[in-house]
Amino acid sequence: MRYYRNKKLSDTVYDFIIVGSGVGGSTLFKELNKKYPDKKILLLEKGNNKINYNNLGKTIQVLYITSLGGSALGAVGNAIKINLKKIGIKDGSIYEEIERELNVKKVPEGHINEKSKYLFNYGFERTPKFMDFEGCNACGLCARKVCQYKWTPVMFLTNPNPYSKILSNFHVSSLAENGSFFTVEGYDLLMGKKRIFKGEKVIVCGGGINSPRILSNILDNEHLGRNLFVDTFITVGGVLNNSHLDRSIPMALYKVYDGFLLSPHYSILLYNKVKGDNTNKYDDKNICSKDIYGIMIKIRDENKGIVGGNKIYKELTKKDEKLLSKGIKRASDILYDMGLERIYKTIPRGSHPGGTCAMGKVVDKNFETEIEGLYVCDSSIFPETVGLPPILGIIAMGKKLANIL
Ligand SMILES: Cc1cc2nc3c(=O)[nH]c(=O)nc-3n(C[C@H](O)[C@H](O)[C@H](O)COP(=O)(O)OP(=O)(O)OC[C@H]3O[C@@H](n4cnc5c(N)ncnc54)[C@H](O)[C@@H]3O)c2cc1C
Fold it and tell me: What is the model's pTM?
């Protein structure tokens, strides 16, 4: 991979400038390089090789990652085929190609946590994952460290054509129309200075939180930054001695209910809750992370949040609260059956932000904004959540846009 930082770069007019190297941006970069081996394609990315978590919001903590490869660096490998009709992809066969490319397989029986096997009694299924189970040692750290046995978008950035460039550590701050091309202005964090690039077509792939921010100075659209969903989740659970969920493949099983899904999930927040409970009957000193067992409840939340400037506004609606209560009840019943005596719950969080440049409101069915040549391709264009892990769906959208361009 090459990182160009020479001054002449700024004089070039690129055929395509892609902003953001997450799932949407990396897919587009890969597909456009394949389709147009002679075109000049520039990928601008704010982050670098380190995993940099962002955590915003008061009532609901919203998580995303600004790094080369984006939020999927922290993904736990869930590879679910979501329904894409709302973004104009009616033919599910696109998933066959994606599953082949990402080597998607269901978690093998041998990799399932022993205590979690109890969930088969409730109709839970093994989760399909983009993980290489031959190499995976089930360390349980998928969300915290980069691992060669899990697909990440960085794997889509390896073979650019000779005219393509990837510039990381570059924070895009504004876009402008300039006659026959766009100017993309930003700050080179390594050089410590402002730089401007020119492109005929610009595709913004900054993710559900950052795409509306990047577009805010060029687009005057009342829906920009609104319509935010995050697939709110909480984890409930407590002490189940020697369950070792902390060193198991996260979310190895799942079950979809009406409006929410349940999946076994170790959470450090849950561990802290149990440790911090002075009224529990356990001797705090003896409780280790290996003794904590939890189930995640992830709901199909309402798209009523807003990204505004550097802040986000996202509350639980009445409907969200109802769904969470239903999910907590289901999960708690199962956990009591498994032998837990007291159930704790974490704060609500969300790790699938989207909806803020919704198709039909901010972009049209060809992913184009009201400004010709300016596109968006990431989780922000989903009009509403499907309440399921979106990575395969975002890859499908990247492939579709590459076909259109
Ligand atoms: C902990 C965690 C676990 C997850 N697990 C799963 C899972 O198992 N399966 C699944 O399907 N989904 C999972 N998700 C969700 C999934 O990772 C995201 O939905 C997906 O990565 C979103 O892709 P995207 O292209 O929309 O945005 P992102 O991946 O967030 O990419 C946006 C990119 O734009 C860059 N950027 C932002 N602003 C600027 C700027 N101003 N200038 C330049 N670059 C910029 C960012 O650095 C980033 O690289 C998980 C998310 C988290 C946080």
Answer: 0.95
